[in-house]
Amino acid sequence: MKTKTSISKKETLTYSAAATAAMVAGSQQADALIVYSGIQDLVISQGAAQILDLNGDSASDLSFKNYIFGGGNYQGANIYGTGKAVGFTTGLNYMSLLSAGDDVSFTDPNYSTFPFSLSMAYGNNPDSEFDTASNGYVGLFFTSSSVNHAAWIRVSIDNDAGTFTIHDWAYENVSGVDIQAGAIPEPANLGLLASGAAGLMALRKRRRQAAA
User: Which domain holds residue 190?
Assistant: First the structure.
């Protein structure tokens, strides 16, 4: 089956809302280090990819892929720019499956030095760690305006079924500061994020009604 690299209009709108939510979180919590996206639950259809701009600076930080190759279903990622992912190399570059509380540390040597393709799951390859990952975490590092961010992304993947969902993500807004997988801002700051997310939902509802 031929893979699709283009993003549909619906996926683009979803991505834009996700990026906006991250920007709202960052602008409302200047005294916090962690910037949280809120729940997104972005579903990547088979044969498609999803670009993420984690901090809303209009620069693509990575894309996740849910493709079908000759050897079976494939899930993986492209890391852009100088970004790196927590992972390992055994002939191919793989992302590591992290659990809540695991450190995403700038001093951890276990990350890929390759800022491009990394595998997550492929036809039940024994090196894959995301074959049946429910609410697993990816750890990565990305750079924006000379600021080096540590980040996590929570995903669920079923390689056999060919399903891939991006649930949410967070990053540290101070350069060189580590983050723990699953760490989010304090509850008071989450309330501000919820208000922004509610506004985005209302906007989408109005757009759907206008188009009906």
Answer: 9-211
Q: Is residue 21 a part of any domain in this protein?
A: yes
Say what the pTM is: 0.73
Q: Evaluate whether residue 160 is within a structural domain.
A: yes
Per-residue pLDDT reduced to its tens digit, 200-211: 555 555 555 555
Q: What is the pLDDT of residues 57-110, one digit of tens each?
A: 999 999 999 999 998 999 999 999 888 999 988 888 899 999 999 999 988 766
Are 154 and 167 contacting, i.e. CB atoms less than 8 angstroms apart?
A: yes
Query: Tokens 């997988």 map to which residue?
Result: 181
Tell whether the model's pLDDT for residue 195 goes beyond 50: no
Distance CA 55, CA 73 (A): 30
Sequence-distant (≥ 6) Cβ neighbours of residue 58 within 8 angstroms: none
Residue 1 lies in a domain: no
